[in-house]
Amino acid sequence: MVAEPRHGARGMTFAPDAARGLRHVFVRGLTVQARLGVYAHEELRPQRVVIGIDLAVRDEAAPGAEGVDELSRVVDYGLVAATARRIASAGHVRLAETLAERIALALLGDDRITAVRVSVEKPDVLPDVTSVGVVVERTRF
């Protein structure tokens, strides 16, 4: 049986759920320099972008076993971060939504991942706010 992520009023719950065979893997505060935005100066000059990633991942050992203590059996958060970093630095992207979607879709390339939530924040855009950005969610059908 393939575990499917739970959905609530606000979308994916991204919580570990042994009964459904899911674990929650995340990367928080990945800070990169990226050319992101619709204005000319954003195309020319990289700016600080903060990325957050939440993954619903199939846990083959759940609900009552311990899996083999090997990196190959899990989604490697180092590779998750590297994927996001590579995509963010690949060239100019006009919309934060587009960047988040590209990251989410790339991560869904791993069959163990059933759902992805990606946040993209631009903390240095408006002088009177902490951050602006977007969160997108993509699931495997």
From TrEMBL:
Residues 25-138 form the Dihydroneopterin aldolase/epimerase domain. InterPro entries: Dihydroneopterin_aldolase, FolB_dom, GTP-CH-I_C/QueF. Keywords: Folate biosynthesis, Lyase. Transmembrane segments: none annotated. One of its GO terms (molecular function) is dihydroneopterin aldolase activity. SUPFAM superfamilies: Tetrahydrobiopterin biosynthesis enzymes-like. Its EC number is 4.1.2.25. It catalyses: 7,8-dihydroneopterin = 6-hydroxymethyl-7,8-dihydropterin + glycolaldehyde. It is an enzyme of class 4 (lyase). One of its GO terms (cellular component) is cytoplasm. Pathway: Cofactor biosynthesis; tetrahydrofolate biosynthesis; 2-amino-4-hydroxy-6-hydroxymethyl-7,8-dihydropteridine diphosphate from 7,8-dihydroneopterin triphosphate: step 3/4. The keyword Lyase applies. GO terms for biological process: folic acid biosynthetic process. PANTHER family: DIHYDRONEOPTERIN ALDOLASE 1-RELATED. Belongs to the DHNA family. This is dihydroneopterin aldolase. It comes from Neoroseomonas eburnea.
